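P.,

For your records, the input lines for the assembly:
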Amino acid sequence: MNTDLPLLSVFNNGIDSTITRWCTPSIHPSVPRVRGIYENDISISYHSLGNPSMNTGIFKKANELAAKAYGADHTLFGVNGSTGSNFMVLRALKNQLGPKMKMLAQRNIHKSISVAVEDYQIETEYLDPHYVDSLQIFAPNTIEEVLEGLKRSRANVLLVTNPTYEGLSTDLKKLVKTVRAFDKNIIIFIDEAWGAHFPFSKEMPLCAMKAGADICVQSIHKQGSGLQQTSMIHWNDGRIDVTWLKDSYKSLMTTSPSFHMLASLDGSRYFMEHEGEEAISRLVKLAETFRDRVNTSAKLKEKVTAIDCEDLRQNYCAHSDATKVLVHLEGFSGMELAKRLEEKYQIIVEKYEANNVLFIVTFQNTKADVEKTVAAIETEIKKMKPQTNHFPKFPNLIKKKMNSFQAKLAEKESVTIQEAEGRVAAEDVVPYPPGIPLCVKGEVIQPAHINYLKELKKTKELLTVVMVDESVQTIKVVKE
Ligand SMILES: Cc1ncc(COP(=O)(O)O)c(C=O)c1O
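Structure tokens returned:
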């Protein structure tokens, strides 16, 4: 590394040649590439190209081709990931529906959603989460639970994060049909950040647009062969007020978006449209090989299991993304294994948890990567000490007292975790794992939350907790 150029020198020496990646971005080697990053950099001053935020010229044409390929009526390209796209969509919906907007959401929301909900003052109710403690994963709510939630809350927007991080998907088509039969005016918004590849393969869960949802966002950089930051918003005609969506797009997108990133989205669309099906099929087979190698290894027996997609489908969801390999460790730390893989072998995993490691089979991976990784796991697991601490059970009952934006603006105080029972949270508490909020601002802190936080302190080496006091001694609550 050149200390005068700490960032540039690392990249110019080639990230690809040194690491084995099981993480995003998943970019196919033959995706059409943007050339001449410096030579061709240009701004909206070059009027004849059109303007991305006005959706004119070549940008409009590329958006139209994408809409067709991704099965939507309309598409807009984004350069601030699904984070930026979620903000755009929620701002648009709030402006469209005004103070009457009420949203029902699954609890596995990304923080862009919880922050936008506060900033745009969107009244939101969360469905009690399903957390599978034995596997340490979030499982989708059932369609019946969603319907019950809609009846109870009288929400006019339904937000579902689908698929989950681990690739678990609900039966979207059935969900859409059920919601429409209940109330045809409800807007169905799917955070499909993890499903940018779904439209191109029958082996994947059905994508939001083809299932008949109203609007969705996708991170093309995750598994859709796009560069980091690239995303798309897709929507179908009918319930979305285009004027407000375009207003949000114009207002929140930088006035100088990188045309390279926008052009790379055009390349991702082209590749996925023409070669996506075959490329995804290869990933599914490689992931199967990975799971088989783990599950038939004598050295990993009873210590390490690659979770079978069929088991997930039978027990927790309608469909799952078979390109994800969730490796569960019996009594060994996922964090420790992931660190050993990275430090000793430069094997980069997507994420780790108390007893899990998630590998995403990307377009860059090969059979040799599988062999190298399984051999590394076999070597390292032998050296690891079994854990003595066990991961606590995740509380799954939500009691909302006020909206998160009200709690955010209320007078607050800090109390010890012990004293917090019955108080209203004035901060979000998000333990990783599971990466879903234990408490959101405005919710009542219950004994189960306090026990969970106390247990967490004992297992601190297994996880991190995102809260103001990182030592997990105190919590911010609304002053009484
Ligand atoms: C469900 C979900 N939505 C949105 C995002 C934000 O995506 P991006 O990183 O493209 O901004 C993520 C990121 O991981 C996510 O998991």
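Two observations worth noting. The pocket of pyridoxal-5'-phosphate is lined by residues 81-83, 86, 110, 112, 161, 165, 191, 193, 219, 231 (CB under 6 Å). The chain has a mean pLDDT of 94.

Regards
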